[in-house]
Amino acid sequence: MKQEHAIPSEWLPFLSGGGTMGAMMRSHDWSASPLGHPRTWPQALRTVVGLMLNSKFPMFVAWGPELGFLYNDSYVSVLGGKHPASLGMRFHDIWAEIWDDVHPLIVRALKGEASYMDRLPLLMNRHGYDEQTWFRFSYSPVRDEGGTVAGMFCACVEMTGEVLAERYREEENQRLVTLFEQAPGIIAVLRGPNHVFELTNRSYLQLIGHRQLVGKPAREALPEVAGQGFFELLDQVYRTGEPFVGHAEPLRVQRDPDAPLEERFIDFVYQPIRGPKGEVEGIFVEGSDVTVRKRVEDELRAANHHKDQFLAMLAHELRNPLAPITTAAQLLQRGTLDPAAVKRASDIIARQAEHMTSLVNDLMDVSRVTRGLVTIENEKLDVHELAAEAIEQVRPLLDARRHALSAEISSEPLHVEGDRTRLIQVLSNILNNAAKYTAPGGRIALRALPDGGEVLIAVRDNGQGIDPQVLPYIFDLFTQAERTPDRSQGGLGIGLALVKSLAALHGGRVEAHSEGLGKGSEFVVRLPRLAEQPGPGISPAADLPAAGRAARVLIVDDNADAAQMLATLLEMHGHAVSVEYDGKGGLVRARGERPEVALLDIGLPDIDGHELARKLRAMPEMRGAILVALTGYGQVEDQQRAHDAGFDHHMVKPADLSRLLALLAGVRAHQA
Fold first, then answer.
1. Which residues contact 238 (CB under 8 A, 6 or more apart)?
2. Which residues are within 8 A (CB) of 26 and not within 5 positions of it... i.e. 6 or more apart?
3. One domain, residues 284 and 352
4. DSSP letter assigned to residue 156
5. How many domains does the chain have?
6. Does residue 487 lie within any of the structural domains?
7. Are residues 409 and 366 in the same domain?
8. Given its phi and psi angles, is residue 404 left (phi above 0), alpha (psi -120 to 50 degrees) or beta?
9. For 409-423, what is the mean pLDDT?
10. Would you tell me how many other CB atoms lie within 10 Å of the CB of residue 210?
């Protein structure tokens, strides 16, 4: 600007004392401005400009038809790089980038209507780049001497820093809330002497069951906890201000509305919350659900106890044969025995050494099984032959104890696939167990018959029976019932554990039944039955479908291990298998892949298998598909429910592989 344009302040007193902008207005070249020279400005504009220049509040006035722009010192920071070129320019030319946002408000002001905006977001370009800003401002009409609206006036405050700070605080609070919610430990905040819930996190709700807690006193929110001591502890901490620490405390809660009380174990701290004057205002609850850890510790203690029992039992069992061996050896050392006495001593040593060898072999067997080192050599086996060989092995003990053994074996062909030696070991162990636990002169019965897709082999005796407290653990390693004085045979308590493991390796299972002590017992082995086929033997490839005839199979089972193992078996036999773990996933997969066979578990987490079968039957993509219920429930009513739901077949877990492969081969042959 040229100095010759400067206007003495005494000529235009409304521009005097106006700070930097007053001085600029006095020295400005107004020739290009729609406002014209300040000497020509009307009195109303002069009055507004005079007030504005002497205010510390950011202000501007836009005057005339083209809205010429005038502003004070405090507004300079709002303009940024647009200052000082904005002085006297048209409003639109200065703020073109926000014109669409503010123009409606300008129109209202020019019509005589004031407006107020709080934190209006505006995308401004005042430093050479776009930046998001927020403003609180008002647009007011300015009238000339005749009362006509000739311009508009704005007082504003930039709120950008405050908005961003609030957003940051909100984000920080949200992060804290998220951390609070996602904390693995249980957290709750209780307020007042009645312990009203103010905050809880997800882990706390998982512990006590999802229910409405916030705003409720603890005794009202958790009525089933009354009498367990927790409310009394809260009262104590609130009254005394002393924190309380609990370790693995039992807590019984009703986690679902209609469910019974469930016992959990928790580590926790009740920490008093103090107010400004030091008084207790509430209690901060923090802790962990240690139920799993507690149960593992209990199991480890029980396992350690079983180990100690086993070591004591092993010492006893090894001392038993060592005593006669030592005595016989000492007699032989004396060299004074006649030939008959020497033979008796030698027989004792041989017999007791054989017994010790049997004990060691059992130990080696259980070690190999538990470490997964046992390999199964599969072949087609006749159950009649297996039973005969097992009886032959146990016959000396049966005869020695004068037991009467009856055998009832079905005349139907009973074939299984497995390792001959190991399956004979399973049956002989059960027979041997029955002989040892039955008083001399007892009765033992062996049955073998077909049962659906399985072969059932049962051994019943009228011996001492099994204590109901022992029965659930009878197949656990090193578990043995109480020894009676007449049971000199003893044992290490590992025979039945071997039976269970070996049966499982053959895809079977074993069960124990007893009505109690003195009432005998029954052990039942179930093995998958082979479908009868012409020709000798069964080769591993016999069940494989012909090349190019793989069936599309969908397995839906929430037991991931069972589903994956079954899928692997079917894939090994040449079939294309998909796996889902819930009903909704099964529906999506069926719609996309159109399986020919669907194997559905009944107990799914979202919808049960019966409902899933109905939904699949209603899908055009599943027209003609075979649905198979794969479940642990095998009663007649279970089979009827499956049929009513639309299943074509019903199979009891574990699935009979030969039956399943035959079904898939038949489906594929039909499709071909």
1. 193, 195, 272, 280, 282, 283
2. 6, 7, 8, 9, 12, 15, 38
3. no
4. E
5. 5
6. yes
7. no
8. beta
9. 88
10. 10
Q: Quick count: other Cβ atoms within 10 Å of Cβ 173? A: 10
* 339-370 vs 495-505: helix crossing angle, rounded to 10: 50
Give CA separation, 243 vs 194, 218, 464, in Å. Answer: 17, 18, 56
Domain, as residue range, for 629: 552-671
Q: Using one digit for the tens of pLDDT, what is the confidence trace for 449-468?
A: 998 889 999 999 999 888 88
Strand-pairing partners, residue 252, are: 263
Q: Which amino acid is at 577?
A: V
pLDDT bucket at 546, cuts 50 / 70 / 90: very low
pLDDT at residue 352, rounded to an integer: 74
**Radius of gyration in angstroms for the set of CA atoms belonging to the chain, rounded to a whole number:** 45
**363 and 401 housed in the same domain:** no
∠ CA 505-510-514, rounded to 5°: 165
**What 3-state DSSP class applies to 335?**
coil
Question: Could you tell me if 234 and 88 lie in one domain?
Answer: no
Report if residue 629 sits inside a domain. Answer: yes
CA atoms within 13 A on the CB side of 542: 16
The single-letter DSSP state of residue 90 is: B
**Residue 357: both structure tokens together:** 């060898």
Q: Assign 3-class secondary structure to 211-225.
A: CCCCCCEHHHHCHHH
564 inside domain: yes
Nearest to 243 by CA among 275, 272, 266, 280: 272
The answer to whether residue 197 sits within a structural domain is yes
How far, in whole angstroms, is CA 76 from its chain's centroid?
59
Q: Are 409 and 387 contacting, i.e. CB atoms less than 8 angstroms apart?
A: yes
Q: Pairing relation of β-strands 149-158 and 59-63?
A: antiparallel
Query: Which stretches of 579-656 are DSSP H helices?
Result: 583-593, 609-617, 636-645
Structure tokens, 625: 């598909």
Residues 36 and 87 grouped into a single domain: yes
The whole-angstrom separation of Cα 563 and Cα 578 is 10
Note the Cα 71 to chain centre separation in Å. Answer: 64
Task: Note whether 147 and 190 are same-domain residues.
Answer: no
Residue 625 has φ and ψ, to the nearest 5°, of -75, 155
**Proportion of the chain above pLDDT 90, given as a percent:** 43
- In the numeric block, which tokens belong to residue 222? 């958790």
Does 34 score more than 90 pLDDT? yes
pLDDT for the residue 161: 93
Handedness of CA 314, 318, 321, 324 (dihedral sign): negative
| SS3 state at 512 | strand
What span, in angstroms and rounded, lies between the C-alpha atoms of 35 and 376?
103
For tokens 């479940």, name the residue.
631
CA atoms within 13 A on the CB side of 575: 30
Is there a single domain that holds both residue 274 and residue 322?
no
What is the spatial distance between Cα 69 and Cα 3, in angstroms, rounded to a whole number? 22
As a whole number of angstroms, the distance between CA 69 and CA 377 comes to 98
Tokens of 596: 């020919």
- Residue from 590, 573, 600, 566 nearest 668 by CA: 573
For residues 638 and 649, is the Cβ–Cβ distance under 8 A? no
In DSSP terms, 458 is beta-bridged to: 447, 524
The helix or strand, by DSSP H or E, that contains position 314, with its residue range, turns out to be: helix 291-334
Q: What are phi and psi of 15, to 5 degrees?
A: -95, -5
Q: In this predicted structure, what is the pLDDT of residue 548?
A: 40
Which DSSP letter does residue 411 get? S
